[in-house]
Design goal:
By secondary structure, the protein is of the alpha/beta class. Helices cover 29% and strands 24% of the residues. A ten-stranded mixed β-sheet has the order 3-21-4-20-19-5-6-8-7-18, with helices on both faces. Strands 10-11-13-14-15-12 form a six-stranded antiparallel beta barrel. A five-stranded mixed β-sheet has the order 22-23-24-25-26, sandwiched between helices. The longest helix is centred in the first third of the chain and has 23 residues. It is globular and about 95 Å long. The chain starts with 10 loop residues before the first helix and ends with a strand.
């Protein structure tokens, strides 16, 4: 039992908690000498101010990198994550599918730049992130550049291996190893910092990795998300045993991979229950074969004479006592009814039970509230505020003096095609997902990097809801997009995906290039097209309303010209270029979506374009933003836009002839739409 503080709130502790919410990697522990004893050491949270300074700085700061898990280049990785970029995402409707209606995105570009650009539009909006980053095996894997090794001189300089005169300060057994790991850690670290910002408070990230970098991955993720937000490491069986695959007696055959799971905020995070399903009687027989005890062996044949014994109005609980209770074995009940044991299971699953002494807080309350009451069965009736029975009135039964909780078979099974299947909650060992024949999954060949759709579906069902946004910024062949669409098709849900992939070129003489796939992105987009067709063909008319499209965006330099010159640098030949600060190859659509990124609006909403007095006016998401990028926009058009009272309005700086015209625009909006935020580009 906790003691009351009986004092005002500790503001230092409160401020540390606030810093921890924003920068969990800046929080460490130190010995609390005041509350420590010779037999027990106490610890308290403190701020690593060097790390906090670095998080708030755009330059690499001097000082020892010695905060728990560190490596050469850690501070530089923080700088990289925080460094602004002059880039944008250019829309590509012609490469898209269902551009006007889809809410899915496919983005081509280096993921660290893309993650930076999404910081405003998707801040706190992503429920689930799944990534399968390079495993740092040292091989050049096709899915993504997989060799992150520092230049030797750079590494030696970074770790201080040599003094100013070039003398070795210390020796390492294997100088390649730490250098090898350092660059990989920096690669992942900067991206996870940005990814964490995008997660919703109840969101989570799942990171696939093998045993080559699992240790480093967990340490990096602990640093970014905080150890308090660690959920699990899932072990995935990927291969079966055989006579080959080991290193000539040096190691065991590698048959597993791992998935590290972290929440944005563990207190807000909740995993959805996901079950493995086996036929009920197959499960019972497997217990017999394995020598395990099958616990559902009794039937409640009679439960009568129910009386209300206590009501807790404050907590919405009612306690009932049952005066009559009769139970029988499965075999005895079958004999008494003149039916087979199998028929008992099929007909009376809601009466077949096991009991448990699980030490739940609810059971403890029941024992306290019904102490001394002599009923063979106690019933607790209440309405759960969360879980699968949220909002429903349920009754939990407790048997005997010890109040052993009754667990009915009907809660552990479900009927599929008229037959009961047994439900096992998924654990951290996933050995039931097939990794065979993955090459052709999704109707497109893609070796060395695919993840099974069933694996990704399990993650999606476990860690997202029906309307979540799911991000994969190492998307490869777009397996995650396929899994999202398949899950939506099976569950009638409306999850959306954002895929990000660097457009790495395929090998010149590869089958991919011969098939017309110049980059991995070409493969990923075609995978989505083919898998969506497969899904809709299988569903037929039931596919109506299913979002199988995607908007394509490509990372590019800023839409705006660099027009920053010293006074003496200007000349007559530059005047025409300076008439507009927008690059000549950029369209209205480029400008519109560039504005969305800066203004923090999602890229997936519908928009319309229309002509008003010859000017092109774009309305995004029914008035979240209205834009007009024409030159010399007349006041009448400005007034028409203002009358619609959008939340935001944007124009070109060159749309108005001088300052008086701009002032006039401001006055028009003040009069007709005072709450509209107006900007120019």
């Amino acid at each position: 039992m906790d003691k009351m503080r009986m004092e005002s709130i500790d503001m230092v502790e409160k401020n540390i908690d606030r810093i921890a919410e924003l920068f969990p990697n800046c929080i460490t522990e130190t010995l609390d000498e005041e509350h420590s004893t010779p037999d027990h050491k106490a610890y308290r949270k403190v701020v690593n101010f060097d790390m906090l300074r670095q998080m708030l700085s755009g330059d690499v700061l001097e000082g020892d990198e010695a905060y728990e898990f560190t490596w050469v280049g850690k501070k530089a990785a923080i700088v990289e994550a925080n460094k602004p970029i002059r880039k944008t995402l250019r829309p590509c409707p012609k490469e898209s599918v269902d551009w006007d209606t889809t809410e899915n995105l496919y983005i081509e570009g280096d993921n660290i730049d893309v993650l930076k650009l999404l910081q405003e539009s998707y801040l706190g909006r992503i429920r689930l992130i799944y990534i399968d980053p390079p495993y740092n095996t040292g091989s050049d894997r096709f899915v993504y550049p997989d060799s992150y090794v520092m230049d030797e001189d750079e590494y030696e300089d970074g770790i201080g291996l040599l003094d100013e005169e070039g003398n070795v300060l210390f020796k390492e057994n294997n100088v390649n190893n730490p250098r090898f790991h350092s660059v990989w850690c920096s690669m992942l670290y900067s991206r996870l910092i940005l990814a964490r910002n995008l997660l919703s408070d109840d969101g989570a990230i799942f990171i696939s990795i093998d045993d080559n970098e699992v240790d480093s991955m967990l340490k990096v993720a602990n640093d970014v998300f905080g150890e308090d937000n660690f959920i699990n490491v899932i072990t995935v069986k990927t291969k079966v045993g055989g006579v080959s695959g080991s290193s000539e007696g040096k190691s065991l055959k590698d048959a597993t991979e791992f998935i590290g799971v972290y929440a944005k905020n563990k207190a807000r995070f909740q995993l959805n229950p996901v079950y493995l399903r086996t036929k009920l009687f197959s499960r019972i027989k497997s217990y017999e074969i394995e020598g395990k005890s099958w616990k559902y062996t009794s039937v409640m044949s009679k439960l009568e004479d129910k009386v209300l014994i206590k009501e807790d109005v404050e907590h919405g609980m009612k306690y009932y006592g049952y005066k009559t209770l009769e139970t029988m074995s499965i075999s005895g009940f079958a004999k008494s009814m003149g039916i087979t044991e199998e028929e008992v299971y099929n007909r009376y699953a809601d009466r077949i039970f096991q009991t448990t002494n699980a030490q739940s807080s609810v059971r403890q309350t029941v024992m306290k509230e019904t102490k001394g009451l002599d009923y063979p069965m106690i019933g607790l009736e209440y309405v759960p505020i969360k879980g699968k029975n949220e909002g429903k009135t349920i009754e939990i039964l407790y048997k005997g003096e010890q109040r052993r909780m009754m667990m009915f078979l009907s809660d552990a099974v479900e009927k599929v095609d008229g037959e009961y299947v047994y439900l096992d909650k998924v654990t951290t060992l996933w050995d039931d997902i097939q990794y065979n024949n993955l090459t052709k999954e999704g109707s497109i060949e893609f070796p060395n990097g695919k993840k099974p759709i069933k694996l990704l579906q399990r993650i999606i069902e476990m860690a997202s809801d029906d309307d979540s946004v799911i991000l994969d910024f190492f998307s490869g062949s777009a397996s995650t997009a396929h899994a999202v669409m398949q899950t939506n098709a099976e569950n009638k849900s409306h999850r959306k995906f954002i895929m990000v992939q660097i457009p790495e070129e395929t090998s010149e003489n590869s089958d991919f290039r011969k098939s017309g796939f110049s980059t991995i992105c070409d493969i990923g987009k075609e995978r989505i097209r083919r898998s969506s067709k497969q899904i809709t063909d299988e569903l037929g008319i039931m596919a109506q309303g299913l979002d199988i499209g995607f908007r394509v965006f490509k990372l590019d330099d800023s839409n705006m010209n660099d027009v920053y010159y010293a006074a003496g640098d200007y000349n007559q030949g530059m005047l025409s270029m300076l008439e507009s600060n927008v690059k000549s190859d950029r369209s209205d659509l480029d400008l519109l979506f560039g504005c969305l990124l800066e203004w923090g609006l999602p890229l997936s909403m519908p928009y319309t374009s229309e002509k008003i007095e010859g000017c092109t006016v774009h309305t995004y998401n029914e008035g979240d933003l209205i834009a007009c990028f024409d030159e010399n926009i007349p006041d009448s058009v400005i007034k028409e836009i203002a009358k619609r009272q959008p939340l935001r309005a944007v124009f070109r700086d060159s749309s108005f002839n001088g300052s008086p015209a701009k002032i006039n625009v401001g006055e028009i909006f003040k009069m007709l739409a005072p709450d509209t935020r107006v900007k120019v580009i």
